[in-house]
Structures are given as C-alpha cells and as structure tokens.
Specification:
Distance between the termini of chain B: 58 Å
Helix content of chain B: 40-55%
Largest sheet of chain B: 6 strands, mixed
Strand order of the largest sheet of chain B: 14-18-19-17-16-15
Shape of chain A: globular
Oligomer: heterodimer
Largest sheet of chain A: 6 strands, mixed
Number of strands of chain B: 22
Strand order of the largest sheet of chain A: 8-1-2-11-10-9
Number of helices of chain B: 23
Strand content of chain B: 15-25%
Largest interface: A-B, 23 and 28 residues
Radius of gyration of chain A: 18 Å
Amino acid sequence: MGALDGILELASEESYQQTQRIGRTHDYEQEVLAFSLGDEEYAVDILRVREILKMIPITEVPRTPSFVAGIVSVRGVVVPVLDLRARIGLSPAPVTKSRRILHIHHGEESFGLIVDAVHQVVRLVSEEVEATPHTLGGIEEFVVGIGRPGAGRMLIMLNVEAVLSFSVRMGA
Amino acid sequence: MDTKKSDKVLQEFLAEAQEIVEGLGNDLTSLDDARASGKFDPDHLNNAFRAVHSLKGLSGLFGLTAMSQVSHTLETLLDSLRLGKVSVTPAILDVLFDAVELFGQLIGDTSGGREPDSSAVDDYLARLDHAAVDESEEEGEYDIGDYDIAEDVLNVLTEYEEHRLKENAREGRNLYRIHASFDLLTIDKEIEDIKHRLKPLGEVITYLPSPEADDPSKIELEVVLGSEAPIGNVRKGLKGMHARVKAVKRKRRGAAAKAESAQRPPAPLPVASVIEVSTAVPAGEQPAAEPEERQTSLRSVSQTVRVDIRKLDHLMNIVGELGIVRSGILLKLDELQESAAATELAGALHRDTRTLERKISELQMGILDVRMVPLGQVFDKLSRVVRKISRDASKEIRLLISGGDTEIDKLIVEELSDPLMHIIRNSIDHGIETTEVRRRNGKPDMGTIEVSAEQKGSHVIIEVSDDGRGFDEVRILETALKRGVIETGAATELSRRELLNLVFLPGFSTREDVTEISGRGVGMDVVKHNIAKLSGIIDVQSSSGRGAKIVVTLPLTLAIIPALIVQVAGRTYALPLNSVLETLAGDFEDVRTIESREVVNLRDQTLALTRLTDLFGLQHPGEDLSHFFVVVVGLAQHRLGLVVDEIVGQQDIVIKSMGKLMSEVPGIAGATELGGDQTVLVLDVAALIEESLQRVVEAA
C-alpha cells in the first residue's frame, strides 16, 4: 500500500456495510447502544436509555433480591439500580474503571443497570437481527434477538421489560 | 380522544365534574337535614339546580352523552322543584341522591376509559321522568296585585324571580326596595357585603338597575327584598352602607294566603338571580357560588385556586434541595473560617446564611400549608354513605361529625375515604343492632356513629365510634382458632388488645352471612393495609354491649419532615422524628432476654428491643461495641427500642419515593438526600413496630 498511504483511507468493514444500506428500504431500523458484560457484547434500544452515569456510590437497600444493588440519586430523583450481571444470572466479575450505570426509562419511572463498559451506538436493520437461539446459556428470557452488524460482531439484544419485571419479594 | 393534550383537558374536566358532584351531594344532604327539622334554606335547592346545570354544559362539551342526558333531565326536575311546581318529598330526595351516586359512577367510568352502564342510566332516566310530576295545576297562580309593584319591574323578572316574589307575597311578607349605590372599583366586595347583611333579614329576590342614577362614577342598583322584619330592622342591618330602604305598599294583608301556603312545604329561595348561561363553577371550598349579575360584568370573587398536586411536589423538591445547598454552603463557610484571612467575610456570610435558613424554613412551611386540606372534605362524603347503607340495612342511624376543619396533607385525604367508609360500613352492618334489639336492651332506637378528628402534635387522630354491640370477642377467638391463626394454648395468653387486633388479619370475618364487602372479611385487613401505606396505624377498642371505637393515627404530612439520623453497622439511616420518643445510651449489661426477645428496663417498664442488624441482615464491620444507643420509637400506645451504633444528629428531610417496585420493601419508607451527596434510606417506623408486634403474636 505504500504509494497509496495518506491518499486513500480504506473503509472499514463496518462503514462499508453502512454504505450498502443507504438507499435500500428495510422492514425496520433501530439504533442500539452496545455495551459489554465480561467478554460478551450486549445491546439495548437507544430510545430506552436516558443517560449514561459514571459509577457513583450506591446506597444498598436491605430485604431486596441480591441483584438489586441499591439506589442512587440522580438530580434529586431516587433511582433503583440493578447489577445486570446478577440479574440475568451471570457470575460476578471484578470491578473495573470502565463500569457504568445505564439509566433506563421505565414508564414514568426509571432504573439503573450496572454494566462493565459502554461501547457505542450501532444501527441495525431488520436483516441484521436474528431470532434468539434456543440455547444461550440460560439467559434466553432476557433476550429479544441477536444483532449482527457485521465484522463478526454479535450483540445480544436485551429484553429490558423482562429485566425490569421482578418483585422485591422474590427470594434474595 | 387519545392525544395527550385532550387527555389533560379531560382530566381537568373530570376533576371539576367531581367537585360539582361533591357540592351537589352536600347541598342535598343539607336539604334533607333541613326537611327533617322543618326549616328550609332555598339556597340548597338553587345551588343543586345550578350545579346540575353546570354539569350539563360541561358534559355536553365533552360529548359525554350519558352524563349529559342525566344532567339534562335532572335539571328539569330541579327547576320544577325550585319553582315550586313539584314538592320536595323523601321519595324525590332519594331520586336526587341516587343521581349523585350515578354521576360518581359515570365520572369513574370515563376516567377509567370504560363505557358507562347504559341500562343503569336508562333505568335512572325512567325514574326521573316518573318523579317529575307537575303539581302546579293544584295551586293556581298567586295574584301579585296586592302589592304596589310597577308593571315594568314585573316584566323584567325571570320566571324564577317572579315565582320567588309571589311566594314571598303569598307568605304575607313585607317587600322592600333597597336603593344602593356601589363604587365602581369595589362593587364586588360591596355586593358581597350587602348580601351578607341581608341574608339574615330575609330573601333577596332580585337586583335591578336603578331608575334613579345620579352619579356616573358609581353603579346604582335596586335590591328587592322579601322579609318578615319591620323596616326599622332592615335599615339597622344596612347601617353604614350607601343604601335607602323603601317599603312596597300593600293594599291588603295576605293573611289567608299565608295559612294556605303553610300546608305544603315551602319552595326554595335563591340569593341571587339566575342567569341562563352560567359561568364555570368557582374552584375551592367556597360554599356559595358567586352572583351572576345581569348588569355590568363582575370579576370572579373566588379566592381559591385549584392546583395540580404534582406542582406542589415539585416545589417541595426544590425546597428540599435548597436545604441541601444551604448545608453545602455552611460546610464551606466552616472551611473558610479556618483560614484566618477571611474571618470577617466568613462572619458576614454566616449571618446571611442564617437569614437564608430562616427564609427557606418559612417557604417550606408555606408550601406545606398549601398541601393541607380540611378533613371535612372526606367527612362530608360520609353522611351520604351512612344514609344509603343504613337504609339498605334497615337501621336508623345518625352520624355526628366533629373536627372537620382539622387539616391534613391532601394526598392522605385522598386515600382516606375508602378506609373510613369501610370502617363505617362495618359499624353499621355489624356494630349497630336492629331497632328491636336496641329497644330490648334499653338503647335509643336510633344508633349513633361519631366521627371526630383532632390534631395532636405532628399527628392527626381520627376516631370512629358507635353505640352498638361492640366486638364479639368470643366469636373472634373462635374464628381465630378455627382458622388456625393461633394455637389453643396461646389463646389464653393474648391480651384484650391483641385479641381485638386479630380482626385485622386477612380473610377474617365472624359473620356467617355475607353482606357486601364487610361480610366477606376483605374489609379490615385491607383497611389496615391502606392506613399503613399512609404511615399510620389503626387500633380497636370495644366495650361489649356498649359499642366500639376505631382509632386511626396519621402523620400530618408525608412531605418535609424532621428526622433523626443514625448509624448502624457503618450504614446511615433516617428516622422520622415525630415517631421518636427519646434516645438512650446503653451497655450490653442492661439487656435482658425474655422469651428469646431482648428487652431493657426503662423507668420500671419493659421496653422490647430490635436490632436493625438482625432485621436487615447487616454485618458489623468487625468492631465489638460494648456501648450502643437505643432510639425509643412509638406510635399510639406501642413502643419499641431500636438499637443503633451512633446517633448522628437531626435534620429536615424530604422523603422521596424509590419507585413503585421498591416501595414494597417492608420497613423502608423511602430515601432521602443528606448534604454531602449521601443518599440514605428512611425507615418506616410504623411498619417496624408492626413487625415486632407480629413476632410477639407468632412467638406466643
């Protein structure tokens, strides 16, 4: 590539894919926020994400299931925070500096979800979303589908409603 | 209507409609009471007419056909009633009261997006048609020729006013023409004033523009008054006002007409003249609607504003945050004072902060005050309920209400009507005996239920007592044993209070036959749950054969409260100060164990202890403390000692909800922010006391 260095910027696989989409009509398009839990990438509909918070001190609440990390205060409003790993049944992982809290809309209220790292917004068209496979290691109830935006990337798309459907009376 | 905007408008309409229906209910109750005691205030019937008229207009505007139809037909009936064409009989009153129920249901249906029950509506309309029988042919028109009233005056009166004029004449009253002049700038206040003064003297029939207008900067009116009082009294009553009183001459005494009118119930009397196009009903608790004057347009005199309670919550939040900012400033001030150079400035800042503190406090009080509404709002509704239920149960019952002007947070009031209604229903169904049984026991035929409210410190005590048969303790015990709620051995150990409190357990009912909700045993435990949600507690007292009393204790407000900040196992918690009785310092040696419960001796009384570490499953961070503190909390007559590691101090807090899901956590009332970015949990003292009592019963 010597002669072409500095003159041409070769497109990455992904941006090539993006250009392929322009001009084509699809069943639907959605934008998702990609984040990671451990080595795997997950995603949630970007419209459900109010904001991304740094890890602020969480006040624990007794007598709640163990996946309820506690509560935080966001500009004067009290928001319950869940440990997403624990909620979907993954084993705990060491805390890293990249941990964030996704502040998620839930009807008139909101929740926080602790994730290991936040990546970026990805646009997915209908063809790029597959149905949930039957064996996904036990987390199927929390998944709506698998997104493949290209370059071998796999995004496990989270069913937010299922994640937020719990009762505090469930065994801790 | 599915856009958000029209939703909001519909909500406002429903709120207003509800208020109108409430007012209608109150007027009908007053009408009923007046009829029973033989006196008549025509205002009530007239107000009822205007209420239904407003409702008709409003519901028509929103295309709510059912409500509009009912209002329309009801309005016609009420018009006939106030014009004296139909007399007010108990049967008619029943029909009117049922309208209130029906409206309530229709409003509920619309609010919940349901279709109204059309068969119920049709049935009711049929009843209305049947009831509105015009009796006017029997009476004949009264000849007003007795009185020297100019023809042009008579022509200007509306049918209603003319009717009222003739009624006054029929009863042989004196008619007066009062010429009054009002200042253009203060006319509305002055008219209020004159109305106020004339009301005790008699009935204002109409306001007329005065034929003798001298001063252009003033408005001159003539008030036609019907009164039994002599002219001297009328003049005395109007002393100090710019008014001249003239008597309308009579050609002969209407004595015979008076005797005739005494036979049928007097027809309604208005205060102000009625206009066909009514303005919206003024908001707030003002009893009399404003006069819709025919002449110059008058500003609304309504002194109240209807406010969405969420706006108040928002203001509350802001005040709470102001408090936090203030704490932050104080902290920085302290730091500043350490640095010697800025001491003078720091001193000045300190003074300003203290002023800020005072102002924030006042603001807080002011907003809290806005949220307070009188309990009378709930109590008034109860009279209607009692009337209906006692009729259904065929028992004679009177309801005595006192302390209706005791105020409490609006949110609490909203949640109170259902529980109170339940308690009263229980009283009527199970407490008050039938008339025969009462007679046999030497009790007055009529049962009495007393509802009272009183503020005691930062709580409100509501008592509902009856003079019925009291709680059947034997049956309660039987049912409890039968249901397996307590062991046979334990039964004898229960104190009277514990025994009576068994009725609050779910599914409890000692009556074999099911009477609506109270018989099915859904009642008392739901009541207790609802009261607990308001951080209140409920207690039962009973005297066999003599009656029972239910006492509900509620906090004044759930908004900003003073709290005690404590630390347990490295965590910080807030305890509402109004439930804290005292704090003690203790040593482990002072603690004794009675039946596996820890207790201490407090002034010769045993105080049960609860360790939050046990309750919440907290781990102590290693240290073995030999000293601890006990926060003695109490509500009504129950006491509990909470063991904590440290008492940090006192602070005003705003309890914030943790959201719907988290509000189910027992023992936690919510969360709050202390200065310095600390979010701490607020403990629900009532629930903690509950739990501790529950454990006593279980252990027994």
